[in-house]
């Protein structure tokens, strides 16, 4: 098992708890990017291609004590169900077709 990856189906990394619903390919992971919130970045980068997970993001990895304009209250814990379908030109179905192109 890679260091820093999950143990079983749950990963808890500071403000992000990731529960794997469906395993991905275990080989292809996204790179850090400019996501909206830190928790999204932390959670998604641990997912592999094709994986379906629930991300539970604490407020310090989300929108903090200030929240966001009456839509998300301050101190809110955020929950997302995320399926990683594509990384660059690599898509979830690449294994089925037998071809792969990494960019």
UniProtKB/TrEMBL annotation:
Enzyme type, top EC level: isomerase
SUPFAM superfamilies: FKBP-like (SSF54534)
One MF term in the entry's GO annotations: peptidyl-prolyl cis-trans isomerase activity
ATP-binding recorded as keyword: no
Keyword entries, A-Z: Isomerase, Rotamase
Domain PPIase FKBP-type: 1-88
Enzyme Commission identifier(s): 5.2.1.8
Reactions performed catalytically: [protein]-peptidylproline (omega=180) = [protein]-peptidylproline (omega=0)
Alphabetical list of Gene3D superfamilies matching this protein: 3.10.50.40
Keyword Isomerase found: yes
Annotated InterPro entries: FKBP-type_PPIase, PPIase_dom_sf, PPIase_FKBP_dom
Protein name: peptidylprolyl isomerase
Native organism taxonomy: Eukaryota, Sar, Stramenopiles, Ochrophyta, Bolidophyceae
């Amino acid at each position: 098992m890679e260091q820093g990856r999950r143990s079983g189906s749950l990963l808890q990394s500071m403000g992000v708890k990731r529960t794997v619903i469906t395993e991905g390919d275990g080989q292809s992971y996204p790179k850090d990017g400019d996501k909206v919130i830190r928790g999204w970045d932390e959670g998604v980068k641990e997912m592999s291609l094709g994986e379906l997970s629930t991300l539970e993001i604490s407020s310090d990895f989300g929108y903090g004590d200030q929240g966001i304009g009456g839509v998300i209250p301050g101190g809110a814990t955020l929950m997302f169900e995320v399926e990683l379908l594509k990384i660059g030109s690599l898509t979830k179905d690449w294994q089925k077709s037998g071809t792969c192109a990494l960019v």
